[in-house]
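Memo to structure team: turn this sequence into structure tokens by end of day. - J.P.
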Amino acid sequence: MTRNLDLTSLRSFVAVADAGGVTRAAGFLNLTQSAVSMQLKRLEESLGIPLLDRSARTIGLTPIGEQLLSYARRMLELNDEVYGRLTATDYEGEITLGVPHDIIYPAIPKVLARFSQAYPRLRVKLLSSNTNLLKAQHACGEVDLILTTEPEGTPGHTTLTTRRLVWIGAPGGQAVRVRPLRLAFSNVCLFRSIAQRGLDRAAIPWEMAVEGDGQTAIEATVSADLAVHASLEGTEPNDLTTIDASAGLPSLGEMQINLYRGDLGAGPAMDDLVDMIAAAYRMGQPPTMQVVSA
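Reply from structure team:
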């Protein structure tokens, strides 16, 4: 007897695996928590095997669940590709998306891949810059859709998530001990003045170790343990780590990741791109990070 896997249940299964829990996956899928739980139960019953390990505080995958996840991703990708190629031929053109360089990963590549499958004839031009420049370009109509990192939004924004602004440095580094504290920020970085004011209030002397707008030079300087930097929690480069509060550096507060959409960006395709971006940032959890103690 031929048996078929339910793609809707598989989509819920993948969402739970990516989100790390049923509640967050339900928000991503725009379903109730009970609906997602029911789909997972139906999938396990149809296969006759447990897919989720519910013994710990957080949901994990069983070994068989890990195997299924790989198959499920491929099946859903093929399903979405079929629908995209056969039903989205009316959508053509280009959307310009602006994103600050430090929050592109890990969300944006996944969003672009998924959107391309759904709308293969519609191109997305990714523009990486800083918040101030992106907002100026958006106001002039040069960019259709932008994300920003800022303490609070201006009229027309939608807040996707709020993250802590944290100090980061080289793993096991000693730059955090040096006085004056050496900082590496671009001239146009919003985090620069926030860090400087925080240090002034804490009576910690500082000096700039990098001048200019080159992000590569900034990351190289911090990686070499010649300075410290700040970034949103969960967006640190792979070779840098957060600096523990015991190091004595001041708290930098929280920042919003906001979305701004142009008035001309109407239509189902833009709606779907906005929904994909919003879901990606709202679902994303800051990963477990190493810390650099004083």
